[in-house]
């Protein structure tokens, strides 16, 4: 199940990359690169920071094949995708939910402090979107009004709060991931934002 | 003493990140990220390049706590910070002075050529500010008119010139760091800039 | 011969960095940094991704000396360089041709899948130019109309197609590199571009 959710997250991030790249009038190759970077950027930075090299997508071809297929399918069904924006938000949110928990668990395996593990989970979930936006000359998603990385941090905190309860590890995984997903969906639905400090 | 100066540098960089992020109207989370990236960016790239992973801030929680506290305190005392701009330049300059020498010494420990050690020291000192500026859509600090990285290079050169003299290693550290600090402060005070090649 | 071509590639990338930095009115130090980043950026990311640290340019001083000398000579002969734009395209193209094959071979040494090796070769060839353009606030070269990374991918594919033929490894290297070079030169000459998806 772990791997299935991971693939769904990769697909969702790849789709979001394709849509942004098309809106920027990039050529086919540019679209493919943005899809790839969005899907594997966060995991790559996570692996580099903890010294897990060659990085994951170089060792497991599944990611590459999934991204290639997703890109082709998304381009071919572009005219229908516009109706899918809501599903996309859902997929994307499932993606950051999952990537957060995967990142947290990688940090635990590397013997890191819980706070660092939560940071690592957040980096895994958010960095792909940040690179996508920098390459496309947009303000990075985590700096916009919408709650994004905050949801990942809450999910990571939840993971450590319930980790020592007498429940199965898969359940911990699902609950922590769900916290990310529900937090973000509620924030988007009710337009909840974090306060800013700036005063005119 | 080494660690104390290191913490002062981290605090100074975190403050500079908070101030830039506030001026960009970022939300609380964006401010925290920019503070963090500014403070640990240079050391992280240094660690990645020489293969020292997990990177330093993942192994020593002091950095994380210091940055969190600094960010909160800076936000709470924002109205007073404006009077602190001169002190900030001083702190920031102490920061690059220290990070330069720390980077040089890490390079020596890794058995690298002196020129590479100086490059590593300069990267440690400057890269946090570069990422901060890229994320905030500003021209990176090292490419602006003001002397910045040049001061780090001079400090690094000084380190190797006096390293073999019969003086204590702590003294070498202080002298080389002071060269960075004095060079930058003099350059700012007397508006010394490097020449450009561009002709209209 | 391998090393000679590698140096030619490094020189070409350094020259291209100097020219872009001058056109952005950077000071002497900014020019040097952009030259350096353009020349070693791709190889550095390649080394980080496969875990080859300290990265190559930190272990072999030849790159540093070549980049320093190239930068000085290019600045001094700036007025003549304008006549060299055509040669520059040639040098730059030789550069990506060579860096592609070097990257592919590094991937093979690390025991990676052929598709990943081709990606690694393309990253080696293109990433220096991408960082140069991001630092200079330009749209990254690989996302512009001109064929660029596509030539690298074709060269990488060619490498694996002819690799098992009964020919010398040096010949495989030359043929694959030539595919990159010829593809790009033909694409520039005949203004061949990849199609885009965007419709108004």
Automatic annotation (TrEMBL), chains A, B, C:
The chain crosses the membrane at residues 6-23, 28-45, 57-76, 88-104, 110-135, 147-165, 171-190. InterPro entries: Gly_transporter. One of its GO terms (cellular component) is plasma membrane. Its main location: membrane. It is a multi-pass membrane protein. Signal peptide: none annotated. Pfam families: Gly_transporter (PF03458). It is found in: Cell membrane. Keywords: Cell membrane, Membrane, Transmembrane, Transmembrane helix. Residues 4-76, 90-163 form the Glycine transporter domain. Coiled coil: none annotated. PANTHER family: INNER MEMBRANE PROTEIN (PTHR30506), UPF0126 INNER MEMBRANE PROTEIN YADS-RELATED (PTHR30506:SF3). Belongs to the UPF0126 family. This is Trimeric intracellular cation channel family protein.
């Amino acid at each position: 199940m772990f791997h299935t959710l991971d693939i769904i997250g990769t697909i969702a991030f790849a789709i979001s990359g394709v849509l942004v790249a098309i809106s920027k009038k990039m050529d086919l190759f540019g679209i493919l690169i943005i899809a790839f970077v969005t899907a594997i950027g966060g995991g790559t930075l996570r692996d580099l920071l903890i010294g897990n090299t060659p990085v994951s997508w170089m060792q497991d071809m599944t990611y590459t094949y999934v991204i290639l297929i997703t890109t082709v399918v998304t381009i071919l069904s572009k005219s229908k995708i516009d109706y899918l924006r809501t599903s996309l938000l859902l997929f994307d949110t499932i993606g950051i939910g999952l990537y957060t928990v995967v990142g947290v668990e990688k940090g635990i395996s590397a013997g890191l402090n819980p706070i660092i593990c939560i940071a690592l989970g957040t980096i895994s979930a958010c960095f792909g979107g940040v690179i996508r936006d920098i390459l496309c000359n947009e303000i990075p998603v985590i700096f916009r009004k919408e709650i994004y990385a905050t949801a990942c941090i809450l999910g990571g905190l939840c993971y450590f709060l319930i980790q020592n309860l007498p429940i199965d590890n898969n359940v911990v995984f699902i609950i922590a991931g769900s916290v990310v997903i529900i937090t973000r969906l509620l924030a988007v639905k009710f337009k909840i934002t974090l306060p800013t400090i700036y005063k005119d």
